[in-house]
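agent> Task received from the user: take the single chain below, predict its 3D structure, and emit structure tokens. No templates, no multimer pairing.
agent> Plan: (1) validate residues, (2) run structure prediction, (3) serialize to tokens, (4) report one or two observations.
agent> Step 1 OK, no nonstandard residues flagged.
tool_call: predict_structure(input=
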Amino acid sequence: MERVIIIDDETNAREHLRNLIEEHCPQLQVIGEADGVESGFRLIREVQPQAIFLDISMRDGTGFHLLDKFDRHTFQVIFQTAFDEFAIKAFRYNAVDYLLKPVSANELVKAAGKIVASQDQDHPAITQQLFNLIDSAKKQKFEKIVLHSSEGMHFVKVADIQHLQADANYTTFYLTSGEKITVTKTIKTFEELLPESSFFRPHQSYIVSLDCVSKILKEDGGYALMEDGSKIPISRRKKDQFIMALMGRSSRS
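)
tool_result: status=success, residues=253
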């Protein structure tokens, strides 16, 4: 029996996956759960699982952050992702297994079979696959992200995001349509997920789309005036870098 753990910041997602494993995958034994990058890192070191089911977007970072904490991986990784088709291609290309949320029993059974089979593989090969995936994820330009709010799942085009605002462990997305979506993840999570070429964090509480900035205002230390009239504060230490990012974005347009 293969010893596995589940790392996901959504309680319902962990419970759903655990129940599916217990019902459909007798060859797997869930020996622990964690709800983030740091807790997942501690759990892996403590219980030494043979495989982990890893969410990508969590409150305190991404699944890639967690993997970066290990010099080498002695465990198989099955990602749980709500990424769009561009990211799915990156997973397939690098031969790393993934489960598309919401997880289905059929796909889980297939993944369980791969976990068992992977025990006959060399772990350095698995490690190289993960490194390749991380590199691909950083280079890919994803067209959509999935946001989980209290209302349900929102499939949002990256081009439709105007700015994000942080409030402790919550982040509110302001879309170009005027719609607002609040999710229970930190803004740091989305800073890592959104493409650096299109988004910038000028202040600890805000991320803006460079394409939606219409003017830089000098008042009160500096603000970014967005296309909808919103004023986003600019940190003094970020101001020069922010202006350079805007100029670079304009030159590429």
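agent> Step 4: summary for the user.
The first strand starts at residue 2 and ends at 7.
agent> Done.
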